Structure formats: C-alpha cells, structure tokens
TrEMBL record:
GO molecular function: glucan endo-1,3-beta-D-glucosidase activity
Signal peptide: 1-30
Reactions performed catalytically: Hydrolysis of (1->3)-beta-D-glucosidic linkages in (1->3)-beta-D-glucans
Subcellular compartments: Cell membrane
Species of origin: Pisum sativum (Garden pea)
One matching Pfam family: X8
Gene Ontology biological process: carbohydrate metabolic process; defense response
Keyword annotations of the record: Cell membrane, Disulfide bond, Glycoprotein, Glycosidase, GPI-anchor, Hydrolase, Lipoprotein, Membrane, Plant defense, Signal, Transmembrane, Transmembrane helix
Principal subcellular localisation of the protein: membrane
Record-level GO cellular component terms: plasma membrane; side of membrane
EC number: 3.2.1.39
Family: Belongs to the glycosyl hydrolase 17 family.
Official protein name in the record: glucan endo-1,3-beta-D-glucosidase
Length: 498
C-alpha cells in the first residue's frame, strides 16, 4: 500500500473515550464508554449517569476511583471498570498491604455500601508506552499480582477481574502485515508474564487502538484506511484483505498472541474513538463518520477476520476534557462524543430506531461573554500579554491551526481567549479585566458561519446547591496551574495574534 504498517500503531498519551460493547442487557444491545474527569467544570455525576442510561451505555471505564462518580453509578445497572493510575504502581507493586488497602477502599466499599457493579480493576494505563522510557515496566506485573491477591482476599476473585490497559505500541509487525505481529522485544518477557497470569485468572487483556493517531502521525497514511466504510484500497495479507486499520491493527495483536501460544486469549478494546477539534483531521465530519462506522459494527456484532466474534469495545470518550495535557496535540481535549456539558456534537444512529440524545437538567452561567473592546488597539503592548495570560489559565485549543476557530482574525482570537478565561473563572467580576482591552456583552460573539463557538460554562455552584453529590466547584490549585502553564506555551505558539 506504499506505507509502513507499523506507523498504524501510533502512541496515545493520557487519553479518555466513550465505548461500545457487544454485550446484551435485557435483550438490548449495550454500549460502553470511558468517563474522564480532567476538567475545570464537571457535570454532576447523576446527570452523566442518566446520560449514559438514556443512550444505552451499560458499561463504563473510569481512569481512577473517583468517589462521587462511583457513588452515582451505584444501583444504576451500569457495569464498571475502575482504574489505578500509573503513579500508584510502584507502591502497590512493592507492597501487598497497599493493594489490599486500595481494594478495600475503592472496590469492596463501593460494592457493599453503594451497590456499584464493579467488574474490572484496570491496573495502570498504557504503562509500557514507549514515551515513558520504561518507567513502569518493572512495577506493572507485581501490581497486577498484588491487586489480584487483594481481590481474592476480599472474596471478590470471581466477581471482579484484573486487567491492564496497554497501548497498541506494545506489539509490532516486522513484515508490515498483520500476520507478522509479535510483541516488542524489549518488553517480551513482561508481556508474557502478564498474559500467562491473566489467562490463569480467566481475566482479559485490554488494548487501546487509535486509527486517528495513525493518520495524524503519518502524512503518507491513506486517509480512507482509517475509516470503516470500505472505500480504502485493501491491505492484502495472504488470503485476507484488510480495508481498515482497526481490523489490521487488532489482528496484528491476535497474531502476536497466537505466536506465543495464547491465540484464544480474551481481549477488550479499552479505548477507540475520534476527536472533533484541535487540528484539521480532528473535526465533526470525520468523528461522526468514524464513530457511526464503529457503532454499526457493534450493532451487527461484527468482528475482525481473525476474530469474527467482536471484542468488548469501550469508546473514547464520553465528554471533552479541558484540563488534559496537550503534549500529544491540541486534539487531546476534544475526544468526547458529547461536548463538555453533555450536549450533542453530532447525531449517531444507535440501531433499533434509537438515536443519540444529550444531557438533561444542565445549568449554565449567565448568557454573557467577555470580548475585545471595539476601541482596543492590537498594537497595544499589553494586547499580546493579555491573550497570553488568558490562554495560560484557559483552554485555547480551538484556536490551533486547522481547528474550529482557526479562521478568526486577531481581535477574534483575543476575544475567544478572553472569553474562555472569563468562563473558566466562573464569570467573576474581575475576570474580564485585560488592561482596558475587554468588555462584557450579552450578544453571542460566535461567528454565524462555521463551527467556532464561544462557550458559556456550566454553573457548578448552582448544581451544588441542588445536588449534594455533584463534583466540587473548580479549584485553581498548583496542579491545575502547572497543567495550564505548560499547555499555554504550546497553544500560544500555534497561531499568531498580531
């Protein structure tokens, strides 16, 4: 096909996606979803749980044991995979008592006291990612063993299974074809230890596959091969013809398992999806095309050439997250099937006459925006400084080249940045004060044409007065500031304001 198939296994960094599952609930096809919480303004968990139920999502993956999310999932009929962050792998892997304490606090308690249907514990997240330079290679397997021992001790060894989500870069193909698949030589021993242990425990392997990253990383990648609708030139591997990178990538993994004696190993797809903003490939049209194709496969129970029975698939992600690291790219904050507030980005046909529906009962701040004053001079020395300040503490990724708001002029860029800062700080009186360059307006400044939208944030305070179980209002502490500071230097360099 004129491209290196290995490039299809691009790495994924700190991600989060709404996922589809082939499992049946009360005779109805169910979907599955990643629920990430790296955001400044969180919807109350009850609203999100209702959003999932309204859309037939009966499985969810959490990246860590967020207490309010878990409580909201109690007695909801939604099965849960709860994650352990990588920064806990060393302590849990080196001390079984730490594993016992974690399981008691984050699994046993929520099952017994809150009625949460926890089915999996995901130990780490893409811990063997090449960009980690081996940081977690030695601690992941010991952590898996200790969590399994802790689950058994708690009497949950059969009810709750342990797994570890891995990125597709743990396997490769020296031939450029799926049949040549095998695990990376540098982690071969660790992979085999994990696979053998999980197999003996009747537990699954979990892998994340991102066709978008394959396309984004390689300018020569054939775009049509990223989608499911069969318009790409096939990749021929013996008697099999592959028409999309998802099938080819997944079957490369199956080949790797077969070569090592575990061809029937249960596999879960922990993350797969398509972002809607942040660069030219991340847009509504492509995301809808990809996710509709994915939904269609799930509804039809369609697997891959090597695995006709489809795997359990978790889509990434439920919502956009405006605090995620943008080291992989500005698109990292826009993987949601829904916007940050649970509103719909695009329609999806879910099968059986059902369509995607948005969140209900969401409360917003006042309909007012902070924008550049008509008297502002873009040559004012404080103009660029003010924009820099705004994008240091707020999400400006929609201004990146190829993004939804990349077509704005200099004042438009500044208005977008000012408003995001103003909304992120909950429309505080002093948050629209940029050296006399800004004003508050009640006229929506969003362009009449195109996808660019000037946000109004969720009113987290109002939600809290109505619901004692909602997440806390945003607190702009050291960790938040550091994430935004690092991100802002990247964003500010993505476009020219003057």
């Amino acid at each position: 096909m004129g491209f290196h198939f290995q490039r299809c296994f691009s790495t994924c960094f700190l991600l989060a996606f709404c996922i589809l599952s082939q499992s049946l609930t009360k005779g109805t096809l169910g979907f599955a979803c990643n629920w990430g919480t790296i955001t400044t303004h969180s919807l109350p968990p009850q609203i999100l749980v209702k959003l999932m139920r309204d859309n037939g999502i009966n499985k969810v993956k959490l990246f860590e044991a967020e207490p309010m999310a878990l409580k909201a999932l109690g007695n909801s009929g939604i099965q849960v995979m709860v994650g352990i962050p990588n920064n806990l792998l060393d302590s849990i892997g080196s001390n079984v008592d730490a594993a016992i304490a974690w399981v008691d606090q984050n699994v046993s308690t929520f099952i017994s006291k809150n009625g949460v249907d926890i089915r999996y514990v995901a130990v780490g997240n893409e811990a063997f990612l090449k960009t980690y330079n081996g940081r977690f290679v030695q601690s992941t397997f010991p952590a898996i063993k200790n969590i399994q021992a802790a689950l058994v001790k708690a009497g949950l060894g059969r009810q709750v299974k342990v797994t570890t989500p891995l990125n597709a870069d743990v396997y490769q193909s020296d031939t450029g074809l799926p049949s040549g698949g095998n695990f990376r030589p540098d982690i071969q021993n660790q992979m085999m230890s994990i696979i053998k242990f999980l197999s003996q425990s009747n537990a699954p392997l979990t892998f994340n596959i991102y066709p978008f990253l394959s396309l984004d990383a390689d300018p020569n990648f054939p775009k049509e091969f990223a989608f499911f609708d069969g318009s790409a030139s096939p990749l021929v591997d013996g008697s099999i013809s592959y028409t999309n990178v998802f099938d080819a990538n997944f079957d490369t993994l199956i080949s790797a398992l077969e070569k090592n004696g575990f061809g029937s190993m249960n596999v879960i797809i922990g993350e797969v999806g398509w972002p809607t903003d942040g660069n030219s490939n991340a847009n509504i049209k492509s995301a809808q095309r990809f996710n509709q194709g994915l939904v269609n496969r799930i509804v039809k129970k369609q697997g891959t050439p090597k695995r006709p029975t489809p795997p359990e698939i978790y889509m990434f992600s439920l919502l956009d997250e405006d605090l995620k690291s943008i080291d992989p790219g500005p698109f990292e904050r826009h993987w949601g099937i829904f916007n940050f507030d649970g509103s719909m980005k695009y329609p999806l046909n879910l099968g059986g006459g059902k369509s995607l529906v948005g969140a209900k009962g969401v409360r917003y701040l006042t309909k007012q925006w902070c924008v550049v004053s008509t008297q502002a001079n873009v040559m004012d020395p404080s103009f660029a400084q003010s924009v820099s300040k705004a994008c240091t503490y707020a999400d400006c990724t929609s201004l990146a080249p190829g993004s939804s708001c990349s077509g704005l002029d200099t004042k438009g860029n500044a208005s977008y940045a000012f408003n995001m800062y103003y909304q992120t700080l909950d429309q505080r009186k002093d948050s629209c004060n940029f050296s006399g360059l800004s004003v508050i307006t009640n006229i929506d400044p969003s362009p009449s044409q195109g996808r660019c939208h000037f946000e109004i944030m969720i009113d987290t305070g109002k939600h809290e007065t109505k619901s004692t179980s909602s997440f806390a209002a945003p607190k702009f502490g050291f960790e938040y500031i550091m994430v935004m500071l690092v991100s802002s230097f990247t964003i500010i360099n993505l476009f020219l304001f003057i």
